[in-house]
Write a structure and sequence with these properties.
Blueprint (H helix, E strand, L loop, with lengths): L1 E4 L3 H7 L7 E4 L4 H12 L4 E5 L3 E3 L3 H8 L5 E9 L15 H8 L6 H21 L1 E3 L6 E5 H7 L11 H11 L3 E12 L11 H30 L21 E6 L8 E4 L16 E9 L5 E9 L1
Parallel strand pairs: 1-2, 5-8
Antiparallel strand pairs: 3-7, 4-8, 6-8, 9-10, 9-11, 11-12
């Protein structure tokens, strides 16, 4: 089933050429949550696969994901999302830091030791999920697989979130219902991250509206106000060295992290079993500063950080 959220006549005409069981054309853009809900309202299966438009499934991915939700205690499952064509660079398996975790991100630079501990915690969890899979606190919304009875129990996506955070809020309901979220290491997809929203001038505004709503619903008005104040007053950390980083040499057991955030989390990662060339991702990196950090795959401890400027 393919849902088109008011993309216009030209794109809708192109979509008609896709061999989908059903094409649902919505007259306006109801956001990802609205598109998913429109599809759920018409779906008839007991197992449901929700996917962004910019995802390519690797062989065997769906089989592994559907097997993962067969347990009664399973709430939802997600694959490992690859960024590059070779499947070496892996996108974050999920990130939901909570109130104090988010508050701490805005204090990046005050205590480098604390920043390194935060990075190491995320790195250990990310490497574990990337390599072995397992239960997670949050799943990336690029692909989610669940059962109809889970949606019957916790409800559908909240359409008040215009862009992002809708899956985070839904997953919170899944966890409150006593069901778990699983990253399936045997399921791989390539997510053409950022491609589906490139050039959309409304993206920043819609993301900010969703973030504000999410914070208020989860933390209350006071909690939201405290986070917004901390965000406005966050300090710029000491700048890491700038480098071209034509190649990072192989360091078996180590990984490299790429993040647009000064906190360095969340991040995309690649193992250093062989040399890594950031230039291979140049066409995929959105413009701006990217923090490139090498770290130990065993304990997540960061080794060195460089800033790569993408113009």
């Amino acid at each position: 089933m393919l849902v088109d959220c008011g993309s216009g006549d030209a794109e809708a005409e192109a979509l008609r050429g896709i061999d989908a069981d059903r094409l649902i054309r919505l007259p306006d853009n109801r956001g990802y949550a609205g598109g998913v809900n429109a599809g759920l309202a018409r779906a008839r299966g007991s197992r449901l696969v929700l996917s962004n438009a910019d995802v390519l499934f690797r062989p065997g991915a769906l089989t592994a994901l559907l097997a993962a939700i067969a347990r009664p205690g399973a709430g939802a499952a997600a694959p490992i999302c690859e960024w590059d064509p070779d499947g070496r660079v892996l996108l974050p398996p999920g990130f939901d830091p909570g109130f104090f975790g988010e508050f701490g991100l805005f204090r990046t630079g005050i205590s480098p030791a604390r920043d390194d501990r935060r990075f190491a915690r995320f790195a250990r969890e990310a490497v574990s999920l990337w390599t072995r899979g397992g239960t997670a606190r949050h799943l990336s919304g690029a692909v989610l697989v669940s059962r109809r009875d889970v949606f019957d129990r916790v409800g559908r996506f909240d359409e008040r979130f215009p862009f992002e955070y809708e899956e985070t809020e839904w997953e919170s309901r899944v966890r409150r219902a006593g069901l778990d979220l699983a990253v399936v290491a045997g399921a791989r997809v390539r997510h053409l991250w950022g491609g589906s929203i490139a050039g959309d001038p409304e993206t920043s505004r819609r993301r900010a509206a969703s973030r504000r709503l999410f914070r208020q619903r989860r933390y209350g008005r006071l909690g939201r106000a405290l986070l917004e104040r901390a965000e406005r007053r966050r300090r710029r950390p000491h700048r890491a060295p700038t480098g071209r980083l034509d190649e990072i040499p192989a360091r078996p057991g180590d990984w490299v992290a790429l993040s647009p955030h000064a906190s360095r989390v969340p991040f995309a990662g690649a193992d250093l079993s062989r040399p890594f060339r950031p230039s291979e991702l140049a066409s995929s990196l959105p413009a701006g500063e990217w923090f490139c950090t090498t770290f130990s795959g065993a304990d997540g401890r960061p080794r060195e950080t460089f800033v790569v400027q993408r113009s």
